[in-house]
From TrEMBL:
Record carries keyword Transferase: yes
Source organism per UniProt: Streptomyces sp. JCM 9888
The protein's name: Amidinotransferase
Gene giving rise to this polypeptide: acmN
Gene Ontology BP terms: L-arginine deiminase pathway
Keywords assigned: Transferase
Keyword Transmembrane among UniProt keywords: no
Entry-linked PANTHER family: ARGININE DEIMINASE
Amino acid sequence: MLEQVDASVMRRQTFALAEAFHREGVVVHLMETPRQASPNIVFLRDLFFMTPSGAVVSRMASQQRAGEERHVAAALAERGFPLVRTITGDAVLEGADCLWLDAGTVAVATGFRTNSAGAGQLGHVLGELGVSVVEVPIGPGVQHLLGSVVPLEERTAAVHSAAAGPELRELLVGLGYRLVEFDPDDEVVSARGLNLVPLAPGLVLMPAGAPGIRRRLEAEGIVVRTAEVGEYVKAAGGIGCITGILHRG
């Protein structure tokens, strides 16, 4: 984490974020975790990846996050979501490195959080559903694929210009995506302004404190909602990191 985090403020921001989702018609499941869990468990996006058949539970690359997987598996099962695979063996995979690009294509970024073996195990699950996994290298200066690209609407994506490598760009353009470029300024890097969640085509929920990014998105025709998540930003994350996506219409 980048700064000392106030857990009580973080908790208030969690409930306010849940309410922001509720206002947009999103069903929210709040996850309570055992006291012995790592503080990083708040970053739920990393801990699983959802497929049409159910969740693939991650296997964390960092030693300090080992064991978080069992807590998210229990929470998913308690809420009735099937668990179709747990990443095992020498494979590591984190959900924030995996991204649906269309109904038949998932991008997986490999680097220091996800390896090729992890991408292969996910590919086995998705291959049975007729979905292709395309492996791309993680870009420079980001922890996950989530830091490089985020869809805004069908075939339009925001990209962190310095972190979106040629392989990722070729994949996106080949699938017909229009790329909205953002340079690595303070709003992108420090305020985590692109660490957002698309709620519907052309509608996103993004962190407060990045007015330049908001103006740019609105100029592109995107409707923007904001929520204050400053304590999560201190912990090197944002709205996208703390939101595990369970289902989209």
